[in-house]
Amino acid sequence: MLTVTPSSNQLHLGSMKSSLVADVKPIFPRKMDDLLLEVQNLFERQLPVDALLALSKKLQAELKERLQSSPQCMLPSHNYTLPDGREKGTYLALEVGGSTLRVALVDLSGRSSTEKSLRIRRIVTSTIDQRVRDFQGLAFFDWIAMRIGEMLAADREASDYMRLKEPLPMGIAWSFPIDQTSIRSGNIIGMGKGFHCSTSKGADLGDIIEQACQRANLNIRLDAIVNDSSAAVLSRAYVEPTTRLAVILGTGINAAIHLPTASLHRSKFGARTFPSEVDTSHVLVNTELSMFGKQVFPTTRWDELLNARHIMPNYQPMEYLLAGGYLGEVVRQILVEATETAGLFNGSLPPTLSKPYSLDTHTLASIEIDTYPALSLSCQIFRDRFPSSTPPTPVDIHFVRQVILSVSHRSQKYFTAAIHALSSILQSTDEGDLTRDLDHVSIGCDGSVINKYPGYMSRSQELLDQLVAMEANGHKRVVLESAGESAVLGAGVAAGMAAAASTPPPSPS
Known about the structure:
The chain is an alpha/beta fold.
């Protein structure tokens, strides 16, 4: 066998070539500073206050149009009145979501009470995991009844109450599709979200819940069904009578607004019979706000890429642009482009950052508030969550932070334009019936982004004040108010309102 051995000169030349290759830095078609300037221009500098006011006016036109025609948006609930603050008592409240069940006892003490007028006395949270989603038939509702029983058994006063002849009234915040037929009834359209209890489809939610409670020997009556945004209005209106609107901004976005019934086209109400025992001049409207803004809000190539790759493109355009479930993905798309074209991370993207939706809002917030020299905290956060053989430099992290600032500030500006549009619709259609005597209009705010993202609410309030002042049309000031735990509290308030409506007034002496 002939063996060929390279000469020492060949070995030396090979090692020189390897060394030269290693020392050559990749060449990228653009500079990071140029890309960052483009991002800042697209996300922030093209959105001065007058431009946002123009966006608000376009949204107002879309809102008015869908009050008349859309079967998917601006949907009237069966809540016609707002709480007057005189509702009192203890009520069972449920919040049923895709991943969590929360069972609570809510105390209503009255708006004029020297104690806290609205509070959660006891609450138990249960995870709805895949095992629960796999329940067949009505087993899911039996599971809910078991969780209710466990919570009540731990509360001495509630246990005593359950031994009385009168059932414990309950309100439920239900996050699944339902064809609601009254304040306390509605046919389940479907569960989705991985649930397998198909037997419940088409059944009345009130009947199913009450029957499950009966099987568990629980003396409970379902008095009210609400969605999350309506619950936010009710919970905030109970303690603050200037509330006419509420918004949920967390992973997604939605809002509810109290409008004159006459402002909606009659077809919106279907074959509904209006109850004679309550004032139906106004109605609480579920806006489905996430579906608005497709032809209103300017987008970037990164937004278009996110939309094109989404499982439901164009379905919730406002949500894709500003809600917490998507902010991190917009930032990630920019970082991917910056890595490939401008040499971010020296052209080597951390492997875990290549996965869609791997950058969450909590990470964005942690980096945005970093005030340490050289962004040392952000560097550590990024290295921990996105390990790489070539760790990011302070220059890389500065770029990342500036991108986060631009994306989060655009979110806040689009959100404020949407809130201004809704509040303008409220004040222009109400004709002074409910807002005449108010010096301002309150908006209840719940959700992780609006209540927890650093500076989000305060910046939104400042910008909202500027929009109202610039328009100068006599509209009242609009004030954002935190409405934490709104789903559970709102379900309790809804039950309290139903109980008050069913109680006959005292006979004259």
